[in-house]
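TICKET: design request
STATUS: open
ATTACHED STRUCTURE:
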């Protein structure tokens, strides 16, 4: 409904008779009346002829009117000179209330939507519910604030950002679409991050805590200048794997067995058990040694395998064609001891087709040839032949046995 207007205490008179049913009212001073639309009463003091009208538009010398409004005697004739008064009438008050309700653009009961803004004349004003002490929506020069009914939490929107004084509970959203979308990549430690940013930071999405996807990049464990955390099972107190600035260590479940890898060596604190595989070395000359000894006890070369004594003086060497036992000194004679730990059955046995020869540096020898059963004993320049067929050399002869059965050469 359009707004109706009024002026204070204005009276005029009819220029000519206003017949019953006529739609144009002519007056002496049209300019004194308010802008249409407005309400007027004709013959306000005559109870028998009082009529309320509404001027809807201006006309030459007067106004086009709607007649016989509520409270009128009727649509009656009014003679020239009759009083026409602009007054605040019931219809005008009703229009005021309709105007407060938006004349169709706003209803206090919420039944009609607003088509214009609510404006406040000063900062600090806002909207509140009935007689609450504080505004639910507050507007000031620096921010717009929405406050909870009990005043305990608020959302503040300023020129620089949005501030929440309480947690953001996404479970309260309807429809099951509890997501925050289109976030910018974080800059500060406490910034929120998108799924894409987390996937990229964790290796392009190629990492799953359940192990269902292989990793394509390394896990970086902080710094190697000090203990930097590690990997452990559940709530175990000790890490199964961790690193320091000098080594990387893997521990058993109880923490007793440890494999420690240094720059120049690898240490194992417990037994080493090899299942279904071999121990291999990448280069000739590698082997096995005891702790920090300088020399390997077991030495693997490209053409031989050697066993060395703890002091390295005695060496048992095995190649494809030679089995040798040597001594490099140290003041202790080299002795072959057979039988001291194996009882009376310790023997040398010679397979058919093979010969045995014991040879010293000065040419003395003991030679047995299996093909003809000959045993030669003596110096290479003067040999004594034992004309006796020996089918098997079952026991190594001793010095006492030789002296008892042979004359010196």
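STATUS: resolved
RESOLUTION: sequence designed for all positions
ATTACHED SEQUENCE:
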């Amino acid at each position: 409904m359009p707004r109706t207007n009024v002026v204070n205490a204005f009276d005029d008179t009819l220029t000519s008779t206003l017949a019953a049913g006529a739609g144009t009212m002519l007056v002496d001073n049209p300019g004194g009346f308010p802008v249409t639309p407005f309400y007027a009463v004709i013959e306000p003091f005559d109870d028998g002829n009082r009529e309320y009208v509404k001027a809807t538009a201006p006309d030459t010398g007067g106004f086009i009117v709607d007649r016989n409004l509520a409270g009128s005697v009727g649509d009656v004739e009014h003679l020239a000179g009759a009083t026409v008064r602009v007054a605040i009438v019931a219809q005008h008050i009703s229009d005021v209330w309709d105007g407060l309700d938006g004349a169709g653009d706003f209803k206090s009961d919420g039944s009609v939507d607003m088509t214009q803004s609510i404006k406040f004349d000063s900062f600090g004003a806002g909207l509140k519910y009935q007689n609450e002490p504080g505004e639910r929506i507050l507007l000031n020069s620096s921010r717009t604030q929405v406050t909870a009914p009990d005043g305990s939490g608020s959302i503040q929107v300023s020129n620089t950002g949005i501030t929440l004084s309480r947690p953001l509970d996404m479970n309260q959203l309807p429809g099951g679409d509890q997501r925050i979308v289109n976030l910018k990549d974080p800059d500060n430690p406490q910034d929120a991050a998108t799924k894409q940013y987390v996937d990229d930071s964790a290796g392009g999405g190629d990492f799953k805590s359940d192990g269902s996807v292989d990793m394509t990049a390394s896990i970086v464990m902080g710094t190697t200048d000090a203990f930097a955390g590690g990997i452990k099972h559940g709530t175990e107190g000790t890490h199964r794997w961790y690193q320091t600035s000098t080594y990387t260590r893997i521990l058993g479940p109880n923490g007793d067995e440890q494999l420690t890898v240094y720059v120049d060596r690898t240490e194992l604190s417990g037994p080493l058990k090899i299942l279904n595989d071999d121990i291999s070395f990448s280069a000739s000359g590698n082997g096995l040694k005891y702790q920090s000894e300088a020399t390997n006890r077991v030495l693997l070369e490209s053409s031989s395998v050697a066993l060395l004594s703890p002091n390295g003086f005695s060496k048992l060497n095995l190649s494809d064609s030679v089995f040798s036992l040597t001594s490099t000194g140290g003041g202790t004679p080299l002795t072959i001891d057979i039988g001291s730990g194996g009882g009376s059955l310790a023997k040398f046995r010679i397979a058919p087709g093979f010969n045995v020869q014991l040879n010293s540096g000065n040419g003395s020898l003991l030679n047995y040839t299996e093909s003809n059963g000959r045993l030669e004993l003596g110096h290479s320049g003067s040999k004594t032949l034992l004309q006796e067929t020996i089918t098997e050399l079952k026991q190594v002869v001793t010095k006492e046995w030789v002296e008892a059965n042979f004359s010196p050469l």
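CLOSING REMARK: The longest helix spans residues 90-100. Residues 126-168 form one domain.
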